[in-house]
Structures are given as structure tokens and as C-alpha cells.
Amino acid sequence: MKSKYVILLSAILISVSTFAQKDELKTLKKIYSKEAPSSSDMVDFKSNLSILEGIASEEGDKVYVNFYKSMLPFMELNMLGTTATPAQMNDLVNSKSISDLTTGLNATLDFEKKSGKQIFTNDIAETIKSFQPMFLNYAIDLGNQKKYKESASVLHSLYQLNKKDQEKLYYAANYAINAEDYDTAFGYYEELKKQNYSGEGTSYYAKNVVSDKEDFFGTSVQAKMDRDGKVKLKLYVNPRDEKIPSKRGEILKNIALILVQKGKVQEAKTALSDARIANPDDISLILTEADIYLKLEDFTTYKKLITEVLEKNPTNADLVFNLGVISYNNKELVEAEKYYKRAIEIDPKYSNAYLNLAILKLDAEKSLINQMNKLGTSPAENKKYEILKKQREDVFKSVIPYLEKVVEFDDKNENVLKTLLNVYNALEMTDKAKALKLKMK
């Protein structure tokens, strides 16, 4: 008999709990529907929401609990109205609350589409439409404050609210890069790549006849219609269209750079290969690929790629200098000297090129010293010693202009100053040595 009572009591309790859920959901909906809830309304709202969170068991109830919970900060802000302080606004509306709102709204839309009962679908559509401009301005403001991670989150939320607006995801990825949140940026870029996003389009401009300034109308078909209509009404003149180039190459490049940073070099090479195919004339992609081969110490491929870049951009002193460094490391001294001198031709103030030329020349001095130290004291060897000594002096004379140039651009470089002083002393250039010592003091 007792077991029957236990079963009956259990059924009653479940029934009471279910009815309680429905009552609380009604209360929440009633308060949510108010244009301006009062402070007492919000107390009731929070109380019922808290109770419902603990007992909601059906899928629909859980979805609506999360919906109301995601709307709570914005309802509180609505309740405060113009009395809200900046601190209260920051506590209620931030990147997390916007992300939670996005999750809550989308989950509700998905559930109502699946269930066929559109309770809040239209209301959510209006909410999204009204919130989007405010959230965008908020994201821009966060970016201006260099709060890049938060800005990226808000822009990603805007994309989640409208998956057709891929531009928001693109800028979210860029802000994530600025925040050095590379894992997040990689995920965003991968999604853009998967969707084959290019960002290509047209920007529409025209000059305002009143302000005499050119205004930007936007990039959509509607923007063009708006611009053209105002031109016809003679409110604007000089309509101008500007092509927006593809961002696909940049996206693929950034994917590769992140992979390199993570040590996934082979994956990066594949990504860059795809990027090169998509943008064959993009110099930055070739440079990125060259950088990968440099990290792999594949200097042959590196030089090949840099040479390819220099054919497109022959006045890049950094690239020419890099070729000099690679040639020097490969013991190709004639090639290295050629590249260093070419870098100086392009940029006469390229201090590192002068320094490396001096180092290259001084390498020969080491070899001469070794030969001199091995000689004996016979007349023939003494004669050879004098020849080597003269060659050593010639080496010192050849490096003086390069070392003096480095000092001219950087008179705090102690190693260069000491080297130049040693050269002056070896050549018995007393006056110059004294002047340099004073400078060093």
C-alpha cells in the first residue's frame, strides 16, 4: 500500500512543479512585454527567473529561460533609462552580455522554427534590427580604446545575429589579431575561407551640393539606388564608384602566419600555396612564403622568392640587404658584397649594410693574420710577411669608410667604435684615434 502512496505523491509533485513552471513563464513573459518595467517588476522578474532556472526540465522551457536571462541586462538598462550611470551601463552592456544575448536569441529562433510556434520570432527580429547599429558603434568605440579582444567579440556577435554580414566576421578576425588572440582569429579566418568570402564590391560616393564634400553612401545595391536618386534630385553631383579589392589573399596570408607562429610550417606552406594561386601578384604573400623558408633554413628557395619580389619591386633595400645576409652565410662573399652595396645605393643611410660590408672585409684580415703567424724568419718568409702585412693594411683602409658611416648614423655603438679605433691604431692614424677616443669618453 505504501508504495502506491509514494508513486501517487511523486506524480502530484511533478504536476505541481510543471504548473509552477508555467506560472513563472507567464510572469516572465508579462514583465518582458512591458514597454518600461518598474524596479519592482525587475525584482519579480529576477525572482521567477531564478526559480525557473532550477526546475525547468522541458526543452522549450530551458530555451525560454535562457532567452529571458540573456535579455535581463538590457531590460534592467531599459528600466534605469536616463538615470543609468556610466558604471551601470558598463556592467549591464558589455562584450559578454552581448555574446550571451546572441546565443539566447539564436537558440530561441531555432527552437521556434523547429516547433512551429513563433512566440518571439518577430519580436527578436525587431530587437536585432534595433540593436545592430548600437552594437556596431560600441564595437568601434572599443576598438578606438584599444580593447581589441572585446571589440572582436562584439563584431563576432553581430555576425552571429546575421550570418550574411560576413564583413563583421572579417573585422572581428582583424581585431582578434590586434589583441594577439591568434586562436580566435584563426577560427574566424578559417570560417571566412570556408565560405569563400572575398569582400569584393563597390563603394558609392557623391558630392553634397550644400557642404561641397564627398559623402559615402555605402556598398549595397540600396546604397547605390539612394545615391543615384539624390543625384537625380540634384542634391548631389559627381557620383563616383570605387572598386573594393578582394580580401581573400589577405585572409589566406593571415592563416599562414598564424600557422607559422604555432610551428605548423607544412600547413602554412599549403595555405600560402592556395593564397598565391588566388593572388599571384600579391608581393606580401611571396614575402610571407619566403619568411617560412627562411625559418626552415632553406636559403635556396628563400633567395628564389626574394629575387621574384625584387623583379616586381627592385627598390626594396631591406630585401636586397636580406639577400646579402643569406649570401654571406652561404660563403658567397662576392654576391653578399654586391647586395650590400646595392642596398646602400637604394638607401644611402642603410647603417646595417655599411656594418656588414665592414664585417665581410674584416673576415679577410683573420685569414691574413693566420698566414702571418705561421711564417718563420727566413729572408723569403720575411718578404712574404711584408706582402701579407701590406694586404692587411689594405683591408683596414677599405673598411674605414664603412665603419665611419656606421658611427655617423650610430655613435653609441661601442663595438663599432672599438673596432674603428683598433683600425686607426693599426694604421698609425694617431690624430683620428685621439679624436675617436674623445668621442667615446
Task: Describe the protein's architecture and organization.
This protein has 441 residues and is mainly alpha-helical. It is 76% helix and 5% strand. It has 20 helices and three strands. The chain has helices spanning 2-32, 39-55, 59-80, 86-92, 95-115, 121-144, 148-161, 166-178, 182-194, 221-232, 248-261, 265-278, 283-295, 299-312, 317-329, 333-346, 351-373, 379-409, 414-426, 430-440; strands at residues 201-208, 214-218, 236-244. It has a three-stranded antiparallel β-sheet with strand order 2-1-3, covered by helices on one side. A hairpin with a 5-residue loop joins strand 1 (201-208) and strand 2 (214-218). Helix 5 (95-115) runs parallel beside helix 7. The model is unreliable at 1-20 (pLDDT under 50).
Fold topology:
Layout: H1 2-32, H2 39-55, H3 59-80, H4 86-92, H5 95-115, H6 121-144, H7 148-161, H8 166-178, H9 182-194, E1 201-208, E2 214-218, H10 221-232, E3 236-244, H11 248-261, H12 265-278, H13 283-295, H14 299-312, H15 317-329, H16 333-346, H17 351-373, H18 379-409, H19 414-426, H20 430-440
Antiparallel strand pairs: 1-2, 1-3
Helix pairs in contact: 1-2, 1-3, 2-3, 3-4, 3-5, 5-7, 6-7, 7-8, 8-9, 9-11, 11-12, 11-13, 12-13, 13-14, 14-15, 15-16, 16-17, 17-18, 18-19, 19-20
